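Two proteins, back to back. First:
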Amino acid sequence: MWEPGENIDLKSATILNKKEGTLYYTNKRLAWVIKDSSKVTITIPFNQIKNQQVSTQESSRIKLRLTVNSSKGTDLIYTFEWIESSKEVAKNERDSFKNAIAVKISQVRQSALARSESSNSSNLLARKNEAATSVQQSSRKKVKLSRQDIKLRTMVLEQNPDLALLHKNLVLNGLVDEEEFWSSRENILADYRIQLSMKKGEGAEWVDLAPEMQDNGNYKYTITPEIAKSIFKQYPEIKNAYIENVPNKISEKEFWRRFLASQYFNRNRVKRSALAERDSIFDECMENEDKYLNSGGDVANKGFQLGPLLDLTRTEEDHPTTGNEKDITMQPGRDKESLSLIRRFNRHSELVLQSISKARNGKSDSIANAIIIEDLKKHDQNRGILLNLKDTKSYFNLPESTTESEELGEDELIQILESSKKSLHSISGKLSFDVDSAVFESTMQQLNASILKKTSKFDSNITLESLIGDADLAKKIQILYAESFELSRHFWILVKPPSNAFKTQKLKSVYDKIQVTKSKVDEALEANKSNDSVQTILKRISLGYDSIAQMYKSFSQLKHVI
């Protein structure tokens, strides 16, 4: 069903054309498989997806609609509806598909644009400057993203709706390249990369697994795949029993029903333990676990090796007459009822310690790190930052000092002294400055009153929506502002020297895209002449565009970049 090298990143149970199935997102395509089928029913290549739409927030159904190019000339519409019982879970799964598809569509479009631009411009640049062509072709090389990078960018877009909207308006519409969009957000990607690299602990939802009361008076437990995975990891005996019995002997539903009714599950619940049913499968699991814990667990059966630097028994024979006397008051097993529970807690602690030790260095490395004292190691002397001199000639050639010095005569020195005396005697009046306190206080009060009057007009709680008075218009203005800021940032980065043929061509492309956004700003200015707040905001954006136009005109007149 799957091609060689194809990996499944996302999957969800959906309905398409009133038929149930599973929607898959892989590294090569979108695939939908009808229920109880082993073959892919519908394949949607990423390069054929024109656009995607999602249902509104108020809609009771969670949907994703894809418009796909067809070889017949007409567009195909696929509407997938999520059948997850929880609306929040379904929405999260739908948004994961939406953001992942958006990243893929952007990559496909940018790669196609790069191929077309490189083919159209290579001939022109080759006639002008062969070296400039090689620079452009190397700069236009497509960056291949790993699955981890795609997952990272998808997660960032999912958790930042404003950034996802900006990505949609700029990248998916072809105004900014995918790599350029993310180049200025490396710090965000770095933060999320750290979150992905963190090893999360196992969830404890199944420990407090509570039943739901149904209308008929029965109880209902919900065991999700995550809860089942946690149970298997905590209790390997249950995992072995599951493998041996499901689905050959009993169904999965029956297995979990018997598990929840068994003494194995209810042994730590005093009220339910007496009412729990006897079960051949789980009674055997409980006996095996008790034998395992009574025999010492991992330490005895699996040859658990304690570190030689921590194992006190390694040097016990060297000093038999020293040390502390054994405490006979602490005897294990005195409380039989809690002994089994304590051993299970100890086993859980062993599993936690083992999971941490696996992530550390090897055995020899851990011993070396323990016996090497960092303070006694020889450290290279910090030589600081080396001074890189490009022009040493001008540095070492000091200005020549002249041995000839002009000395003032005695008459000239006397003349200078007399002139200074006359200047000092001519000073009259007070050298201090007295301030009238009443005038000073009155002036300060007036200044403070003026400042308070101006600042009182501004409220930190004022939003753009309340300032403009229209939610839809405020959203439109916000999008225009974000697009203008992003395009302006790219423009000023490209116009900064040094320049080359690729940057010149890219600058022209960005400037053309700025003109498209500027036309939107002009239309909004024309349509909202009566709204002073909108006029103030958009006119400030227009001033930025005027500066860009003036700079681009000056840049185009430079002969060395034409």
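And the second protein:
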Amino acid sequence: EISMSDSGLDQGPFVVSAGPWRIFLLGPLLVLAGLVFLSLALVMVCVDVANPLGRLAFWGAALGFAALAIYFLLLAAALAMRVEVAPDALRLRIPRWQSVLPWFPWIRADIPYADIAAVETRDEVYSSFGLTSVQTAYSIATKAGRRIVLGFTSPLATWNYPFDEAAARIARNATVTVADRGAVKVGGIIRSIIRGTPPWSTASIGANARATARRRAALAMQIAFAMVVAAVALRACLPHGP
């Protein structure tokens, strides 16, 4: 149990990190996925195709597989992240988020709570291939004008990192409130990785549009789950060879 002092600061650290279960179970899967996509990229490069258009198609596929390999390997590296809400300062070891991509250089900083001007959260709405996804971002703004994105949660997931609790504790220690900035439209995931997400000063799309986006994201997840179940069922029903 974390107690409170007379000054209102938490007496014990609150840590957001991957933990041993995520590291030892999820980490190898992410690395394996990265290596599989990297192998596919190499296969596409090595295929000998005489037709120039066919060759171009294989090179395009190789680039796509290479991008997926990099993404999964970066996700594996991101398991080393750590956000520590200590009694005296906020201690960070986190990737520099470029949309959903954990990028370099990493942020390593000890930030006194007196230097924190704001703690904010917002929904970021992505639309790719006709499907909607929503993630909730958490960030801090320092009095020097620096914006640091701490991380994300999903309104539809139950395995989220507790960034909401971390944000609440940071705000309490900095004697500010967690400001809800509403929701913003980000667009496609690939485009957002290249160009970044909208500034945190961007106006919200409104409460009704935010609720609609969350409903569409829930529907997209249900459709994806149904497609996986259908594929497994179809595979089970197909005749097997001797």
